[in-house]
Amino acid sequence: MARRCEICGKGQIRGTTIHRRGQAKKKGGIGQHVTANTPRVFLPNLQMVHAVIDGTRRRIKVCANCIKSGRVLKAA
Asked: Given this model, what pLDDT does residue 57 score?
């Protein structure tokens, strides 16, 4: 399970980077124009943690949101 949280299943999401040219209207220009749309990937903030799962200590990939919310019990 690469690049996926083993607790909540959060994974990568596809999106685009929009490249613009020109000065914005509120800054005194004639407006910005889109010159290119480039595909990109938004990756989750995954951390390798030692967690207690079914009474055993395992290393799993967990997103930072699950760690902060306490959904994973970290092993000492």
From this structure: 95
Tens of pLDDT along 8-35?
Answer: 999 999 999 999 999 999 999 999 999 9
63-to-3, 28, 75 alpha-carbon distances in Å? 9, 43, 16
Are the CB atoms for 42 and 63 separated by under 8 Å?
no
47 pLDDT more than 80: yes
Q: How many CB atoms are closer than 10 A to CB 46?
A: 20
Question: Which residue carries 């030692």 as its tokens?
Answer: 50
Instruction: Report how far residue 33's alpha carbon sits from residue 49's, in angstroms, rounded to the nearest whole number.
Output: 45
CA distance 72 to 56: 13
Chain centre to alpha carbon of residue 5:
10
Asked if residues 6 and 60 have their Cβ atoms less than 8 Å apart, the reply is yes
Whole-angstrom Cα distance, residue 53 to residue 63?
16
